Amino acid sequence: MKKQISKARILRNKFYDNNKLNLIMAIMGTTVLSMAILCVPYLMQQIIDLIAGTSKGDWSHLLLIGIAIIFMELFSGICTYYFRTSFSTKAVAQYRNYAFSEFLNKNIQGFHKKNSSTYMSALVNDISSIKEKYLDMIPIISQILICCFGAIVMMASYNIKLTIIAVIISLIPLIASLMSGKKLSNAEVSLSEKNSGYIAVLKDIFGGFSTIKSFKSETAFNIIHHKQCENVRKSQKNREKILEKVNYTAAISGYITLFSILFACVLFSFYDDTITAGTIIAFSQLINYLIDPVTNLPPMLADAKASLSLVDKLGNILDNEENQEASGKLVKLNDSIKLRNVSYSYVDKLSKDTTEISLNNINLDLKRGKCYVIVGASGSGKSTLLKLIMQMLNSYTGEVLYDGIDLRNVSDDEVYKSFAYIQQETVIFDTSILNNITMYQNFSKDEIDTVIKQSGLTDLVNQRGIDYRCGENGSFLSGGEKQRISIARSLIRHANVILADEITASLDAKTSFYVMSSIIALKDITRVLILHDLDKNILEQADEIITLKNGCIKEKGTFKDLIDNKGYFYSLFTISSN
Ligand code: ADP
Ligand code: MG
To answer: Which residues' Cβ are closer than 6 Å to ligand 1?
Structure first.
């Protein structure tokens, strides 16, 4: 729990890092503005008493005050224009950059614990709420407070007894309305959750736009959207109703306070000669700055507190990471990767129960530089096996040993350095082919040319150029082209081990054979390949074929051995050849 406070605190500090001068100047601006505002009732009192003859003043003195008020307003305007805008925008940017870099620091499992829309919502919706209701409000709240204290001091200089009565009357409703803040905080967090649900639906729908159109499912998705929209609306309405209640209570108590104080003023003036007409005018104006906090502060503070709870919410998300204390280092694979009695069952995200066993007591030796092929029916656990070796699944039993080092004791970074994991699903960023291959890291021209050749990209690069922009998730490329780019991206990293899961699924037979052959031809790299098609020419080149059935290893051996055996592999192979 201690740790949870700390990320939220760092996030809050991000508002003020290197940003204090902007804040101080913004507050200075509102302070000067408050002084200007308070000078007005004084000026009025002086003018009225001068006209009524109840005081002996000097017109030039009053003129000077008038000019000073204009200059104070000017100074305050400049502060707001320059420093207040700088403060809040810089605070937002710093908060965003920190949160974003923390998201990137998460490990893959930690990241996927939350829906990505939660992260998007935190950086888009929540932060605008925080800016509007907290950051922008700091100078305004300070202005209200300064005006209030200034007004009390000025009122006291006119009449102490009356001032004490005014302060006491106005305190009562303030306390009452401050208490509704908690409800608003909860409503704010609930709205933020609904917003992220809404973003998740939008992401899903826009991501599958062509599928929706080609299957003519617009109506169904309109309904899905409508439902989410309705959830947000209800939550928004609830929040606004609570806010209105706070506002209403504040306004009513404001009026009651105002009338009570004015009534007290009139009563006092019967007994007290020092209360002049000018004093009552000044008093009636100053009371407004006492009432102002009573009516405006509670909703503002409640709102600010509610938006700070969004900061805490994000802090919790960032803290939830179980920081790995893994310190093991991986060097180049010397001997082998060994799986010892490895078993795994997925955990149902909703019920938290484990599902049927997906890998059952797997024992395997993957020797340095050899090429392995895993085959098995759909759902037999092939992909699970590769993910488990990559340490993308936790709480498996047994061990995965890399030259004897238990991979559980090795940080994700080290694993990603030594292993290249290529999946069937491609991720292409909206940048050049080159950047998509290098992922913005430096490689020599030779290295780049080699992987372009190995992954069958030579023609594409010759036709469109290596700087060709790929489009959002590679929309300017064909499925096969995207897949080859993602293969090139994995090959260029000189990993010790390549784990490839049906990576040629969207390639034609010829390109598929070409790409698989270049991977098989790689020297001194341990490869584990899950094939999309049981291509004899590829299977014959593998050092060992591992056959999985219902999460267990059924058979192992070379293509020739397994065919001769006439066992499970033989039946899989003959079915697929037919
Ligand atoms: P294969 O790659 O051989 O087709 P998988 O390794 O993907 O098979 O899946 C093995 C079993 O684990 C299947 O029964 C599948 O339904 C289940 N499974 C795979 N991924 C998940 C997941 N994320 N959550 C729950 N069950 C899963
Ligand atoms: Mg699979």
So the answer is: 346, 355, 358, 376, 378-384
